[in-house]
């Protein structure tokens, strides 16, 4: 792919590919007390191989939305279609990366990466080869036989990303994947994710509460309201292809961040005030 | 060299205790009938080791081992099932709650009436006693599994059975192993208690018979022998746990 081409490949979207969320409603039922409306009539679309970030104050239900798309929770209302198929259960077409890494602590780096490949029933040689390829990609060569407890936070998240990418899902769901990392590691990981995605674009839905992260990574940013979560606005944030530290000095970037921050701030204040009635 | 030195250092309190025992008995501070000198007990232990003691010890270990192994297999399976399936929880939880605080030795006369004085009654008692802490620990461990691990496995195409075997059980393993260690100590308690009440053989039987016949140093030798086996079993359990949980460090 040459640099002249568009950063995203959404223009070449095939029919039915991508994520289509329409009219999704979700109620959270606390053990005591009345049900709380967490998501209210969420409708949006992620085109094939588009990178969309969902931004919102904590408690707005953005992670719940991701879990519904992943098929981890039963859908209460509305519909979710991924790659032309209605979501009913988790599946290997939708790879997921969690904030807490969710590595199997009793498995080594290599065993973690191999897990999904075993489930796909690949021949052993191919499994090992592919696992090694993704371990190399996230620059963890030499750590194959380490347990997660022996790795730093950034390394753990790299393993988790390698494990998910190794299964070659066409949709990547990321739940605040860099939220638990320190600032420097986070920037490095953002750069790596962007590089990986630019090399082999896939449909990405990326949950975050970090405005700058959303603008840096995504083609479009969906801003959610405080609870009950609704889509407040969807902003085009496609930036030219450049290293992150160059991007961060571009006026387009600075303007977008400022504009979106304005939208998020209102909601953060609303969330801080205990949400809306 | 340093390793053996450290073992020596750690067992110093035990050595001092044995020395105090020896001195108390030899000096006449305590009657030798009540407390035979440590050296006598050791000598008796050596002379009995290959004969009666070995036979009775093996009988006990066989019973205890079988019951304990059964309790591990059934206990882990039951604990995970109780955590995982609501109908199983509804049926088994009340039974477990009643069984937990019940002094299992109180069942000895009842189980003897039902199953006789042979192996079956001892095995049943030890099995029930060991089952409780293993089920509880497997249940707690299985309930505490991070849901993101389950979701990760499911999103990669794992079936529910695979999720249980490949995620829930290994994730619960630290809890399961601590339950197993408690059960192991209980197995020894229940084994000797049942054999002391009524039996034809076993280490509890031997201790009882030697005590009644006035062979106090033999009786002490039996106590020392079963304590040593218990100690070794516990250390083996700890070593196995460390190995299985090497990923935690």
Task: Profile the largest sheet of chain A.
Answer: 6 strands, mixed
Report on the biggest sheet of chain B.
Answer: none
Write down the Rg of chain A.
Answer: 19 Å
**Shape of chain B from CA axes?**
globular
* Largest sheet: spatial strand order of chain A: 6-7-8-3-9-10
Oligomer status: heterodimer
User: Structural class of the secondary elements of chain B?
Assistant: mainly alpha
Strand content of chain A: 15-25%
Question: What level of helicity do the residues of chain A show?
Answer: 25-40%
Average pLDDT number of chain B: 92
Number of strand segments of chain A: 10
What is the topological layout?
The complex is a heterodimer of chains A (277) and B (249).
Chain A: E1 19-28, E2 36-46, E3 51-55, H1 62-70, E4 77-82, E5 85-86, E6 94-97, H2 109-119, H3 124-137, H4 153-166, E7 171-175, H5 183-199, E8 203-208, H6 211-217, E9 220-224, E10 231-236, H7 244-247, H8 251-272
Helix pairs in contact in A: 2-3, 2-4, 3-4, 6-8
Chain B: H1 2-10, H2 12-26, H3 38-48, H4 52-84, H5 86-99, H6 108-115, H7 119-143, H8 147-155, H9 160-197, H10 203-212, H11 216-244
Walk me through the structure.
The complex is a heterodimer of chains A (277) and B (249). Chain A is of the alpha/beta class and 277 residues long. Chain A has helices spanning 62-70, 109-119, 124-137, 153-166, 183-199, 211-217, 244-247, 251-272, and strands spanning 19-28, 36-46, 51-55, 77-82, 85-86, 94-97, 171-175, 203-208, 220-224, 231-236. Chain A has a six-stranded mixed beta sheet with strand order 6-7-8-3-9-10, sandwiched between helices. Chain A has a four-stranded antiparallel beta sheet with strand order 2-1-4-5, with helices on one face. The longest helix of chain A has 22 residues, at 251-272. Chain A is globular. Chain A starts with 18 loop residues before the first strand and ends in a 5-residue tail after the last helix. The model of chain A is unreliable at 1-15 (pLDDT under 50). Chain B has helices at 2-10, 12-26, 38-48, 52-84, 86-99, 108-115, 119-143, 147-155, 160-197, 203-212, 216-244. By secondary structure, chain B is an all-alpha fold. The longest helix of chain B has 38 residues, at 160-197. Chain B is globular and about 70 Å long.
